[in-house]
Amino acid sequence: xxxxxxxxxxxxxxxxxxxxxxxxxxxxxxxxxxxxxxxxxxxxxxxxxxxxxxxxxxxxxxxxxxxxxxxxxxxxxxxxxxxxxxxxxxxxxxxxxxxxxxxxxxxxxxxxxxxxxxxxxxxxxxxxxxxxxxxxxxxxxxxxxxxxxxxxxxxxxxxxxxxxxxxxxxxxxxxxxxxxxxxxxxxxxxxxxxxxxxxxxxxxxxxxxxxxxxxxxxxxxxxxxxxxxxxxxxxxxxxxxxxxxxxxxxxxxxxxxxxxxxxxxxxxxxxxxxxxxxxxxxxxxxxxxxxxxxxxxxxxxxxxxxxxxxxxxxxxxxxxxxxxxxxxxxxxxxxxxxxxxxxxxxxxxxxxxxxxxxxxxxxxxxxxxxxxxxxxxx
Length: 378
Description:
- Helix 1 (13-24) crosses helix 9 (305-323), helix 3 (123-130) packs across helix 4 and helix 6 (197-210) packs parallel to helix 8 (239-250).
- This protein folds into two domains: 4-193 and 305-359, NAD(P)-binding Rossmann-like Domain (Rossmann fold, 3-Layer(aba) Sandwich); 197-302, 2-Layer Sandwich (Dihydrodipicolinate Reductase, domain 2).
- By secondary structure, the protein is α/β, with parallel strands linked by helices.
- Helix content is 31%, strand content 20%.
- The protein has a seven-stranded parallel β-sheet with strand order 4-3-1-5-6-7-12, sandwiched between helices. Strands 9-8-10-11 form a four-stranded mixed β-sheet. It has a two-stranded antiparallel ribbon with strand order 2-13.
């Protein structure tokens, strides 16, 4: 069986966790797949994903093999799989465009991006030469032009896309139609963590509604010390992230909150936290007899590993889309794995529809040809 051939755009902390995870789960049986939602999707386990190309702009990563580059500064995520096989995949220079915020020049080398003094490669040609099937986009928040550059490259090279960042491609009707017309699946936009601030906030918001509690106001404040948080100190780059996270929560309400009563977004950059993200959630509502009810939650997670397993699922769903000849956004998978999908759903509904998609079951309950499915633990 052929492996799923994946290219990565952005060899940062999230890419580091993904690459480590592909080796970490190699050779393990389904009973030891803690941390994954599905041990197999279609014919593929996590070790059936192969990195065949990688792009970055940092001088400490460009020109290095991918298994070395993922540990280069300013990456600071937890190392849980230090021993990695030697590959022939060298990180190539991507286009800088708007991928580096100007304020990063004011921070130490170990904390910020440092662009290499090299000409960017032809991304389309590299994808073709590598015979990549899927590109995972890990561009920094606010990199509107850079993300669109890679999206165009996917269309030109005939490559599916998993868009992990809050630049709206899958959820933009024009881009969605481009992928549909090209016969290429896309899963996007803006990856949810496995158990992160957004999925917890969404779940609690839905819980309030399902239990008859009127939510009056809520906030989510996050701090962290990785380049994502440093990048988002530039407020002009933060707009799409705030929209993505806010709409992810608003979508779970029966009636939307006024903008003055909901605040969701990164709060500050704390260098010594490294890849540790701390989230503070507060919810104020009214229950029976309009009696006040308040909830406060503090959650601490390692930010990048928290999304890597979700990306492994999204990659395999994109491969299923390719195998089945589906073009355009995979709506169920996007709703389950992403914060800003083309169609927002309750997470329980998205889970069921994604499971049906994996099994090849359509809305009438028939099974598509060639489908197969194994859930972790089965």
